[in-house]
Amino acid sequence: MLLIILLAFSVTTYSQKKKVEKKKVPVPKWKIHGRFTFLFNQSAFSNWAAGGQNTVAGNFNVNYDFNYKKNNWNWDSRLITGYGLSYFTDKGYRKTNDRFEFNSLVGLKSSNYWFFSFFTNLRTQYTRGFDYSKTPERSVSDFLSPAYLSFGPGMLWKKSDDLNINVAPATTRLTFVNDMFSGKFGVEEGENTALSLGFNLAAYYKTGLMTNVEMENILTIYSDYLDNPQNIDVEYQANIRFKVNKSLKMHITFHTIFDDNASGKVQYRELFGLGVNYSFHEKVTY
Predict the structure, then answer these.
(1) Alpha-carbon Rg of the chain, whole angstroms?
(2) Which residues, listed in sequence order, are joined to residue 271 by a DSSP beta bridge?
(3) Residue 276 pLDDT > 70, yes or no?
(4) Known InterPro entries for this protein (predicted)?
(5) 227 φ, ψ (degrees, to nearest 5)
């Protein structure tokens, strides 16, 4: 009887410890996600004792992500664009947002989370910008002026689509301006382009803070070997999204830039609003 009990116990223990083969989850070949967000703000006053100014503001943003994986190849592309206007009763229209940015990063896997990489980045704006603190107002930028085109080889550490860091120690950057802004943004007087070679670091991290709340962090650091390498350009953007339902989201953006060639001061932009969120293209293929 004791032998039978021991045998039964051994069989039971073995069956519990036996490894269960995990089913392999197929890796998507293409992941595409296009999102459109429109934020609207409005304030109106009439005989208001404390005073106030009527304003209407609208802001749209489009994010388009393309992620490709096959064997040891990884290709991530992202389009970030947006435009915003505010209307003040006595001042007319003022621009509040103007951005066009395209990123492309190709990687060939070397080991674990490491890839040999090559990145391309293009940044510019759509319309002319003004400094309204001056009287009369002064034009400070225009379409494709400035425009920054950066590219170069490097090494990519990618844990997932939501966490990656790319280091490119031999990055070429071209700065373009029109004749009006020749002599600014690091371009010499009488020229329309400037060439620089430097170190570029780009990091991306998206995480969930709590239920229906996510935070997206985008960081870029650049140092020009050929012109004051100690003056490091830093750009950081944080996007916090609060999901109300499928179509409505509350959106907060903190965006800061330090670029000695563009401005001697820290540039800062903040955006807050409740808006409509729409996924116009969402696709996964295997």
Answers:
(1) 25
(2) 253
(3) yes
(4) DUF3078
(5) -145, 100
Q: Residue 9 contacts by C-beta under 8 Å, 6 or more apart in sequence?
A: none
Read off the CATH number of the domain in which 203 is found.
2.40.230
Q: Report, as an integer, the average pLDDT of 114-130.
A: 95
Cα torsion 184, 269, 163, 230: sign? positive
pLDDT-derived band of residue 18, with 50, 70 and 90 as boundaries?
very low
How big is the CA angle at 189 (ends 256 and 123), to the nearest 5 degrees?
A: 35
pLDDT of residue 6 exceeding 60? no
The Cα–Cα gap between 3 and 73 comes to 57
In our burial notation (b when 16+ CB lie closer than 10 A, e otherwise), range 95-110 reads bbbbbbbbbbbbbebe
> What's the total number of domains in the chain?
1
Q: What is the pLDDT of residue 24?
A: 65
CA 149 to chain centroid: 16
Find the domain containing 249 and state its range: 2-285
**Which residue type is seen at 256?**
T
Taking the CA atoms of 88, 94, 100 and 101 in sequence, report the sign of the dihedral they define.
negative
Residue 254 to residue 277: CA distance in whole angstroms: 19
Nearest 10 degrees: CA dihedral of 218, 197, 148, 182? 140
Largest distance between two CA atoms of the chain:
103
pTM: 0.83
